[in-house]
Amino acid sequence: MAPISKHLLPMNSSVDTDGALRIAGLRIDALAAEYGTPLFVYDEDHIRSNCRALVAEFGVDNVVYASKAFLCKAMAALVHKEGLMLDVASGGELFVALAAGVPANRCVLHGNNKSDRELIEAIEAGVHHIVVDSFDELARLEAIHATGLPAARIQLRVTPGVHVHTHEFVATGQDDSKFGFNLTNGDAARAVALCKESKSVELLGLHCHIGSQVFAADNFTAAAKAMVEFFAPLGLEELTLGGGLGVAYLNHEPTPTYSQWGSALKEATRNLPSSARVIVEPGRSLVAATAVTIYSVGTVKNISGIRKYISVDGGMSDNPRPIMYGSGYEAFDPMRVDADRPDNARIVGKHCESGDIVILDASIPANVKVGDLMVTPVTGAYGYSMASNYNKIGRPAVVFVSNGNARLVVRREEYEDLVRLDIG
Ligand code: LLP
């Protein structure tokens, strides 16, 4: 198998004369020695460059970063500085954004089952708007308004009845979905009518998000067209068309571009009046390829006639995507980036289950041995954000690298952190 394809590596990656990987000028072995492994390394300027490309494609104020993909204070501050708004899908995500200094009016609250507390906190903080997901939520906003809080500025989440080509767990645009108001059965129209009557909400616009890791431009076009048809006669200001753009995880996969995505959406929305703002909400495509995870190899077990198992010092606790969605990744030795990968192995983690798989059937360089570093690229989205403490393994550290400098933005969890919630 060929060496790792460079399109999977962060933008500011380079290879030293001895074959070692550098990101933003820093050697991976030096980062591993300084911060330990597993370690998430983000190419900060790659994130910035993606933010700028999005703003250039969709316009300033029309890009909302779906912070569930990766959120910490440094990340919130960075995207805010680049002019993006933040989609926060819980009171916790809103808390982190505010703690990072993001003004509430640059945040959008999401969620299919927001608590009263989350709604009240969002209204009191003054979020830009709340994306309302159900009739029950509208009733709750009514009750909250009755206690004296201002009317909530809202968009209504609509399920446009579009099936996308992706894993069923991350498809959200089809009629059978827990998210949003159904367009096909008339719920969406009923919700709009309710809002227009109501004093407890100010309806700014509509929202849809059809799913994640979507490659097919025609899926985006179909959803956008259905939304435009519903939206146009209503005279509302804002139409959010979600995130969902797919990224390449494997050597042979192409990377869809923002301009391809933008063209699909622009084509579908071109007849809207210029007063209507078309907003996008990318998560994965903004951060996935900007980061890699560095692991250390701890054991190499060759079961003759069966397979080789290579165990690394992390696993499902820092990347649950393989076990949740059967997601595929590549792996390579960062000390010999350009080496062919003729060997095969199952790369597994250190957790107490057989499903703890990093890569089911990995192509790796010859003679991988205990103590080697191993890197999986494209781990910047839904990796750290879905990390857990399973087996009381502390979550990894996260560093941002830029121009030859590294800064620790999330420290590694230590043993003491594992009992900080325990009482007695
Ligand atoms: N907007 C809404 C309302 C969303 O629910 C999501 C993602 C996004 C935007 C951003 O979608 P993206 O651009 O990242 O595809 N954990 C799964 C992905 C779950 C996506 C959840 N919602 C995974 O690891 O594949």
- Fraction of helical residues: 25-40%
Q: Averaging pLDDT over every residue, what do you get?
A: 97
Tell me the CATH superfamily of the largest domain: Alanine racemase
Radius of gyration: 22 Å
Strand content: 15-25%
CATH class descriptor name of the largest domain: Alpha Beta
Examine the coordinates and then state which fold CATH places here, giving the name of the CATH topology of the largest domain: TIM Barrel
Please state the structural category: alpha/beta
Domain module count: 2
Largest sheet: 9 strands, parallel
The termini sit apart by 54 Å
Structural summary, described in words:
The protein is globular, with a radius of gyration of 22 Å. By secondary structure, the chain is an alpha/beta fold. It has helices at 28-35, 44-58, 73-81, 91-99, 116-125, 135-146, 187-197, 217-231, 258-269, 284-287, 321-325; strands at 13-15, 21-23, 26-27, 39-43, 64-66, 85-88, 107-109, 129-132, 152-159, 181-182, 201-207, 238-240, 277-279, 291-303, 307-312, 343-348, 357-364, 373-377, 397-402, 405-410. The model has no long low-confidence stretch (mean pLDDT 97). The protein folds into two domains: 6-42 and 289-419, Lyase, Ornithine Decarboxylase, Chain A, domain 1; 44-284, Alpha-Beta Barrel (TIM Barrel). Strands 5, 6, 7, 8, 9, 10, 11, 12 and 13 form a nine-stranded parallel beta sheet that branches. Strands 4, 14, 15, 16, 17, 18, 19 and 20 form an eight-stranded mixed beta sheet that branches. Helix content is 26%, strand content 24%. Helix 8 (217-231) packs parallel to helix 9 (258-269). Strand 5, helix 3 (73-81) and strand 6 (85-88) form a beta-alpha-beta unit. The protein contains eleven helices and 20 strands. It starts with 12 loop residues before the first strand and ends in a 14-residue tail after the last strand. The longest helix has 15 residues, at 44-58. It binds ligand LLP. Residues 66, 68-69, 87, 110, 170, 209, 212-213, 242-245, 281-285, 321, 325, 382 line the site of ligand LLP.
